[in-house]
Design goal:
With about 55 residues, the protein is mostly beta strands. It has a single domain, classed as Nucleotidyltransferase, domain 5. A three-stranded antiparallel sheet has the order 1-2-3, with no helix packed on it. Strand 2 and strand 3 form a beta hairpin. InterPro entries: Gypsy_RT_Integrase-like, Integrase_cat-core, RNaseH-like_sf, RNaseH_sf.
């Protein structure tokens, strides 16, 4: 295993964490089954986007 090291970021929007959550059952509103989340490591800004299909398109 790799050792855990602190993530040092010196300015906003330089490094992002991204996660794709799903498939959710039951589906969310309007048939959304997935949630795409992104977070800026410096500012801790979080966005969550509802997604209907898990495709690369």
């Amino acid at each position: 295993m790799f050792p855990i090291r602190p993530v040092i970021i010196d300015e906003p929007f330089r490094k992002w964490g991204i996660d794709f959550i799903g498939a959710l059952n039951p589906q969310l509103s309007a048939g959304h089954s997935y949630i795409l989340t992104v977070m800026d490591y410096f500012t801790k800004w979080v966005e969550a986007i509802l997604v209907k299909h898990a495709t690369s398109e």
